[in-house]
Amino acid sequence: MDRSDAFTYIILSVVVLLLLPPPCSSDDRLVPGKPLTSDATVVSDGGAFAMGFFSPSNSTPDKLYLGIWYNDIPVRTVVWVANQETPVTNGTTLSLTESSDLVVSDADGRVRWTANVTGGAAGAGNGNTTAVLMNTGNLVVRSPNGTALWQSFEHPTDSFLPGMKLRMTYSTRASDRLVSWRGPADPSPGSFSYGGDTDTLLQVFMWNGTRPVMRDGPWTGDVVDGQYQTNSTAINYLAILSRDDEVSIEFAVPAGAPHTRYALTYAGEYQLQRWSAASSAWSVLQEWPTGCGRYGHCGANGYCDNTAAPVFMWNGTRPVMRDGPWTGDVVDGQYQTNSTAINYLAILSRDDEVSIEFAVPAGAPHTRYALTYAGEYQLQRWSAASSAWSVLQEWPTGCGRYGHCGANGYCDNTAAPVPTCRCLAGFEPAASAGCRRTVAVRCGDGFLAVEGMKPPDKFVRVANVATLEACAAECSGNCSCVAYAYANLSSSRSRGDTTRCLVWSGDLIDTAKVGLGSGHSDTLYLRIAGLDTGGTAKSDAVKIVLPVLACILTVLCISFAWLKIKGKRRNRQKHRELILDVTSTSDDVGKRNLVQDFEFLSVKFEDIALATHNFSEAYKIGEGGFGKVYKAMISGQEVAVKRLSKDSQQGTEEFRNEVILIAKLQHRNLVRLLGCCVERDEKLLIYEYLPNKGLDATLFDGSRKPKLDWTMRFNIIKGVARGLLYLHQDSRLTIIHRDLKASNVLLDAEMRPKIADFGMARIFCDNQQNANTRRVVGTYGYMAPEYAMEGIFSTKSDVYSFGVLLLEVITGIRRSSTSNIMDFPNLIIYAWNMWKEGKTKDLADSSIIDSCLLDEVLLCIHVALLCVQENPNDRPLMSSTVFILENGSSTALPAPSRPAYFAYRSDESEQSRENIQNSMNTFTLTNIEGR
């Protein structure tokens, strides 16, 4: 090859290379039809962030994740991961579909992750939709008119970036959370999480599983209690802002600032980090929790005097760290290390959410909050000098850890040289941990004002309390109340109720002393033995005045008693009118008369919240499709409190039926309704407490089943039958239960059965034989076929459910179990085939063989098969069923005809109620014949 040919070859090679597509794209967006491949990246317009597929350890290409990382620093720091739980391999692509959804698909075209973009089909599916990687690190799917249909900032992983917000929404009570990685090279969700408390929407936690690690204090409308205001030289901004329907934690940095973020590490460290160009590393500006910042660090009745701890942190669902209450304006998490390493943190309230947001000024290095896999929440900043992330601050530490000083203890951070755990006034150190009362308090004891405090956790907010005096009266009037705190949410950012009255019962957990100088503290009023309502020691003069007062009280006693009785009557009438208003519908035949005659126990919502420790999970004894059930002590009586779920579409209907139908139904085999509570948007029912819970909890538990010998089971069968007979025939109205099943039969201390849950029950008029509905509700497997398929129900529908329940009690097998009935699809078909083959006695549960009378078992099986016959007219009435069970013999009974079998869902889905629009395609009916 001569020199001319060689030169020509070189020129052509260069041209070809220039024409080849680059392996990495610098474009900042995706469009439909142009997917992002596993070896390419998208870079934001300013070059700060890149998006693509990565391997956490760079050594396992068989596990790739779609992520976003800093593009302009040498250390790859991933701030967002899409497919955390579904890693992919080479050949995978990210596509923006014509329906405006983001989809990760593998080489075979299988979808491995989708963003589930909503609203795109209506406004975009025309090819003009784009997915843009912003220079803030936010991936945004935009419609042709520029509307954001979806953004990664609303689906955070372990990093909190400037411009991002962590929202707590009022209407849905949902909360955004940071979730740590499982390990340094494992992006799957770890055990630590950080975000708003969905129960109160008033404070932020860090959790380790279910254990709190760190906690903020309740929001007071101005600032977050327990925090110091940032100074005017701050270059990062973190705020808690309140809008109409949300509270959000928002974070921002000024233009040109170094990369900054909050990160929650896999070790449970919440860090404020900033990139240092000098060191080429992330520097940790601050870290939480530390010292007294840890949840409950000072124990029961102790408090931690702490200036750290800005937000709540979890390990799973266990609190790890908690800040003080929110106060509504701007807060700072004590990120000050120098004038160039401060960020602005605020809690902002908007229309339907509260969010935590932060910002950094122009020219600042990269800054972020990161939740590490070790459970460290860090404020990090990138250091260009060291080319590493520096940690400006880290939480939790010391007193910042949740409950660091134990119950009733507090962390005094003003003690030199290190924070010290102390006991609250009126308490002394306990032998194990925390503090205990020196003298028990009584109802008449007064309250001591303790200033400069971060309020404890586990509070109940009393709504519509306008003054400090009214808040004090709420607590003074409740003997269970041990402390209260009040704030006027006068900030323009506050929404709705502009006051905040918090009350506590039981131990005081995670308390700290932040001092008056911070401007972000509460005055905590503690009930102290030996104090009068003015907070001073009682004197002998009181004893002198008492006899005089006794004489006056004697004169007033009769008048007071008369007024009290009159007031109770007025309250009962108002409560009754409120119930009638809630329960009124156009088809309430005769129901209002039932309510008019019923004497309700009216209980205030705040009293129920105190009795259940703010509906603590520790007091929960059950949960169903319409809400949760809690155990409580009210007026000296153990009760079960059913709290209807706010987001249940059938909650009001269930409440209406429960109140009206049980109002006058008094029978020993029906659960007794003691009262109810209707306040604001809360609906609660108060029942007698039955310690042995549902029949299913014992019948299907291998360790508890032996408690149910045959005598006990036969009594349960007859008791349920008597209860149904009362509903169908002996009560004032004919009532169809429609949801009879093992979990709705509760057992008292003597194992006597009581039918519960009348949320789906219906009343029949005189001479009405059946009814039809287009909304089929109930539990698959217990529903009669004519009801499940055609919506026709009658007393015979309950008879069918009783027959299924009867088979379960005899066999000890769930209706849809397949593990104990070989190849039969359900218990009914299994029992029918055993009957046809003459093996009926083999149906009996092995645990009752030694205690049962075979004739009684055979009689019950015969009755059960009569109850589940396909034709409703062939099924016996409950009056006949009760008579047979009490006196009959199977020799005089007709042979049962075949039962109906229709396919229904798996046992897991049957645990919750179903609301199905009637459809002939929903079920299949199968003819049954013996083998």
Overall form: globular
Strand content: 25-35%
CATH class of the domain at 698-892: Mainly Alpha
**Roughly what is the average pLDDT, rounded to an integer?**
77
* pLDDT < 50 runs, ≥5 residues: 14-26, 120-125, 225-235, 306-311, 327-342, 491-496, 534-542, 580-597, 903-931
Largest sheet: 8 strands, mixed
Enter the CATH topology name of the domain at 698-892. Transferase(Phosphotransferase), domain 1
Radius of gyration (CA) equals 33 Å
C-alpha end-to-end distance: 89 Å
Strand order of the largest sheet: 21-27-35-31-36-33-34-32
The helix/strand class is alpha+beta
Binding site for ATP: 642
GO cellular component, one term: plasma membrane
Catalytic activity: L-seryl-[protein] + ATP = O-phospho-L-seryl-[protein] + ADP + H(+); L-threonyl-[protein] + ATP = O-phospho-L-threonyl-[protein] + ADP + H(+)
Protein name: non-specific serine/threonine protein kinase
